[in-house]
Amino acid sequence: MVTIQTTPFSDQKPGTSGLRKKTRVFMQPHYVENFVQAVFNTVREDLPEGFADQTLVVGGDGRFHNRVATQTILRMAAANGFGRVLVGRDCMLSTPAASAVIRRRGALGGLVLSASHNPGGIDADFGIKYNVRNGGPAPESITQRIYEHSLKIKEYVTLDQPDFDLKGEGTFRIDNSEVVIIDPLADYTAVFEELFDFESLRALFARGFRMQFDAMNAITGPYAHHILEELLGAAAGTVINGTPLEDFGGLHPDPNLAHAPELVAHMNAPDAPDLGAACDGDGDRNLILGRNFFVTPGDSLALIAEHAQTCIPGYRAGLAGVARSMPTSTAVDRVAQAMKVPCYETPTGWKFFGNLMDAGLCTICGEESFGTGSNHVREKDGLWAVLCWLSIMAATSKPVSEVVREHWQRFGRSYYQRHDYEGLELATATEIIEALRSKLTTLADASIAGSRIARADDFSYTDSTDGSVSAHQGIRILLEDGSRIVCRLSGTGTEGATLRLYVERYLKDGGEGAIEAVLAPLVQAAREVVDLRARLGRDEPTIIT
């Protein structure tokens, strides 16, 4: 063991999903080591007996620098006295699989190496996230302490030892630590076999059901090959872009209509499969498509909640409750009302859902940014959502579009869009939010887009499980007709700032309206109230979802 003297970096404050920076930032000498030691120093404060009886899980999405960082963490974990370290074979673990391993193996926590849906490569993005004992992201109370430790760190400990061979499963020792190289598929697959009726899904594919799954050259490729093609019998070739690449093949591994053009083209072709799906870089986000039909994340969450109890064995006992992030469409609210279960509105960030699930208050949850999940893990889970949709298809024998339209007939439709303004100067984006915040009192009782404003506020959330308060989580403008405008800054990027503008209008029209026409007055009103043209010189977004 060696002790290395170091000096702090001032920029190691974790965001909503860990520490994310450009890859070259993480490649600086001591950068990874400083942050990892800050994590260990923080966790040790709550463990006076040390780490000798504790297990740490390590793995990542296979992006560039994943393997180098994993070797660094293994040496440091052993030097810091962890009794056992579980590492995914070849350093690989999807984010939801890492959560499953932490929970099933009784680990203290884990270090997940990923920048999620952000691009990979030496000139792209990297990240490290600490997940706690419940398998979910560390709460703010812990990430703040990690940051404080990172600002005063003077040294870290590691081993003077060459890299380890992590290509095959097995066990070896480093000093007093046991390192176990695990099959990254095993625990995750076991969780799915407990939740879903694999026999029913095998029968679905045996009847000729076809799907296309785009792994986007990322971590879910091996999982999808194993679960969809090998275990459920989907045809060979169902999974495309199924080999994880360090730079994701130069593509942006974000499962939306803009970044999954190959899948979209498949689903819009005359001989389109029955279901299209994609997952992001680390496997926690999902895209669901029917033939010439896009299922919005808000509708997907609502549909899964509506059908879970009747279509998926793991939820036959019923749902304790559902939850959505504040910017997510209100579609699931109406399902919860019909099912007579609570619906929670939280800030963006999966840790808020984790608290509700740990308290037994929530079973299924989701965010508008293509993330859905349940209490089987404490992360959003892309493949889980795909298997939920397969279960709905198996139970209803109806096309995706028909299932969604029947939902709209019963519950009405939330016409919904997210407009992203990317690559802004942080100061400019912050000024826009501050200016909008200063308007809140003057917006009361005003009218926009043909409806009066019922409420305008800066969303604040008091956690019902621990009493913690999260303020300034986004500006909400709620109209009397049920429409909403939401404006907030994204916390998941690594370069510049992204301003997000959300518009939603609820209609009981069977969902037959044209979304652009329905939302046009609200979009125009939103741009005017935020004053985008004056502040940015434009009001057209970078991307519309």
What tags apply to this protein structure?
about 550 residues; alpha/beta; Alpha-D-Glucose-1,6-Bisphosphate, Chain A, domain 3; TATA-Binding Protein; 3 domains; seven-stranded mixed β-sheet; about 35% helix; globular
Instruction: Give the structural class.
Output: alpha/beta
Instruction: Note the gap between the termini.
Output: 51 Å
Query: Which spans have pLDDT < 50 for at least 5 consecutive residues?
Result: none
Strand content: 15-25%
- Evaluate the radius of gyration: 23 Å
Helix count, DSSP H or I runs of 4 or more residues: 17
Q: What does it look like?
A:
By secondary structure, the protein is an alpha/beta fold. It folds into three domains: 2-184, Alpha-D-Glucose-1,6-Bisphosphate, Chain A, domain 3; 188-411, Alpha-D-Glucose-1,6-Bisphosphate, Chain A, domain 3 (3-Layer(aba) Sandwich); 413-544, TATA-Binding Protein (2-Layer Sandwich). Helix content is 36%, strand content 25%. The protein is built from 17 helices and 27 strands. The strands form six sheets. Strands 2-6-5-3-4-9-8 form a seven-stranded mixed β-sheet, with helices on both faces. A seven-stranded antiparallel β-sheet has the order 20-21-24-25-26-19-27. Helix 7 packs across helix 13. It is globular and about 70 Å long. The relative contact order is 0.11. The mean pLDDT is 95.
How would the blueprint of this fold be written?
Blueprint: E1 2-5, E2 19-22, H1 23-26, H2 31-45, E3 55-60, H3 66-79, E4 84-92, H4 95-105, E5 109-113, E6 125-131, H5 140-152, E7 155-158, E8 170-174, E9 177-182, H6 186-195, H7 198-206, E10 211-214, H8 220-231, E11 239-240, H9 261-268, E12 275-279, E13 286-290, E14 293-295, H10 297-311, E15 322-325, H11 331-339, E16 343-346, H12 350-358, E17 364-367, E18 371-374, H13 382-396, H14 400-411, E19 413-424, H15 426-443, E20 447-448, E21 451-458, E22 461-462, E23 469-470, E24 475-479, E25 484-489, E26 497-507, H16 515-530, H17 532-536, E27 543-544
Parallel strand pairs: 3-4, 3-5, 4-9, 10-11, 10-12, 15-16, 15-17
Antiparallel strand pairs: 1-7, 2-6, 5-6, 8-9, 12-13, 13-14, 17-18, 19-26, 19-27, 20-21, 21-24, 22-23, 24-25, 25-26
